[in-house]
Each structure stands twice: as structure tokens, then as C-alpha cells.
Amino acid sequence: SFGGEAVTDVGFHRKRILGAAEKEREGMMLLFDGEAVVGWLWMAPRTNSVSGERYMSFKSFALGGGDLGPKGGADGAAAGDALMEAGMAYCKKQGTARVIGKVHSENLAMRAVYKRHGFKPTHVTMELEV
Questions:
Q1: How far out from the chain centre does Cα 1 lie?
Q2: What is the pTM of this model?
Q3: Between β-strands 99-100 and 54-63, what pairing exists: parallel, antiparallel or unpaired?
Q4: Closest C-alpha to 68, from 109, 48, 40
């Protein structure tokens, strides 16, 4: 879900996600191609501190690139759709009324996954390096 500079060591992130999958199995979706992890969606329930509304938040959503497998193209789109559909089924099972996911503004492939599944942009984060 981040820009290209966020994931500098795919092995580190894979190890982190696989460790989290063992400890926090609830809300974790892993996508394999054989024995290789090619994507994941890690979700957690949250509560708005002001309104008390409960919602689901995507903690991490990653597809392809590097040694994770295909990035973009038909394979990447199918992988993104498969993870998103599994995630939405999980959210419905949990009785979730709203889902929030963040994606880097330059990550057009992931933005397309969100758009295909009906997500709408609601916030823009502004950043300045000084």
C-alpha cells in the first residue's frame, strides 16, 4: 500500500507478516503461489475515539514486486482482487459496516484494486521535506 521506497527489504517484511500470521491469525490473509508468499492483507478492528463507531482497518496490504512475485498485469490484478474479496468476506462475517485502507498516492496499481472494489478516496495526507 506504500510507495516504492517503503519496502527496502522484502525478506524483512515477509518475516514480519509471517510472524504476525502466527500470533494474530484473526484478520490475516496470505496469498501463496506454491510455497511463495505473493501477497497479504492484514486487517484489524478499530473504534473511532470520538464517535465510538467500529470499523475495519487494513494494517498492511501488499502484492507482488521483488521476490514476492508478479507486480501489475493480469496476475497482479487477479491477486489483488482475490485478497480484497477474501477481506470483504471477512469484514461481512465480522459485521463491519465500514472499511478503511490507506494507499500511497503514486501506487496506481493498488489504487486500482481499491477502486475496482468500490473504495472512494476520503483523505489526503500532505507532506513536506524540510
A1: 6
A2: 0.77
A3: parallel
A4: 40
The candidate with the shortest Cα–Cα distance to 62, out of 100, 107, 123, is 107
Q: What is the pLDDT of residues 48-98, one digit of tens each?
A: 999 999 999 998 888 874 445 444 455 677 888 999 999 999 999 999 989
pLDDT score, position 115: 95
Per-residue DSSP letter, 57: E
For the chain, where are the alpha helices, taking DSSP H only? 10-23, 73-93, 108-116
State the helix-helix crossing angle for 73-93 and 108-116, rounded to 10 degrees.
50
What is the C-alpha to C-alpha distance for residues 91 and 64, in angstroms, rounded to an integer? 23
Number of other residues whose CB lies within 10 A of the CB of residue 67: 11
